[in-house]
Amino acid sequence: MTIDDSFWQYALLLPNALLIAAAGLAVVRVRNELRATRAFWSSPAMTAMQPEPYDDRDLRRMFDRRITMFEKYLEQQIVSRTESAAESPTTSQRNNELPVEYAVRMVRSGACADDLVRGCGLNKGEADLLMRLHANSKTTTAPLTH
After folding, report:
1. Taking the chain, what is the end-to-end CA distance rounded to the nearest angstrom?
2. 3-state secondary structure of 36
3. What angle do CA 131, 119, 122 make, to 5 degrees?
């Protein structure tokens, strides 16, 4: 039994035909998948899931409200500070004198170091020094310690 060239030609023809048929089936299958995917993405459910265009009007309104609230707060703080400054006796008593002069006068009238810190804006060390230098002998009966 001799195998001639025609046998090999037919033998190679059959696998090639099977490969072409498999490729055709794959193309048909991919095309059907693409159609199904396109139909899915164009369905009403998917169009409803797409985000709306960005709208920053709500953010701007919120920011404007916060700015307005902050401006009102600042106005209230300014008014309350000016009223408290006008009402405080320390500003009316020391219009023309330095804070140290006012502190010396307070010490001579019997104020304590805490009063100097609060009323004159001095720190604790400065208040203690003024107490030692300018306090009456009655007010310095207790030794000052650090």
Report:
1. 124
2. helix
3. 60
DSSP state of 55: -
The token pair at 23 is 């490729």
Whether pTM exceeds 0.85: no
Task: Report the pLDDT averaged over residues 87-111.
Answer: 71
Mean predicted lDDT score pLDDT of the chain: 81
Cα(84)–Cα(60) distance, rounded to whole angstroms? 36
Q: Which of 89, 100, 84, 85 is closest to 133 using CA atoms?
A: 100
Whose CA is closest to 106, among 70, 72, 139? 139
Q: How many helices (H) and strands (E) does the chain have?
A: 7, 0
Residue with tokens 């169009």: 47
> 9-51, pLDDT tens digit by residue?
888 888 999 999 999 999 999 999 999 999 888 888 777 777 7
Closest CA to 102 of 114, 91, 113: 91
Q: How far is CA 42 from CA 33, 34, 49, in A?
A: 14, 12, 11
Query: Which two structure tokens, joined as six digits, stand for 55?
Result: 């709208």
Q: Are 121 and 99 in contact (CB under 8 A)?
A: yes
CA nearest to 113, candidates 101, 123, 102: 123
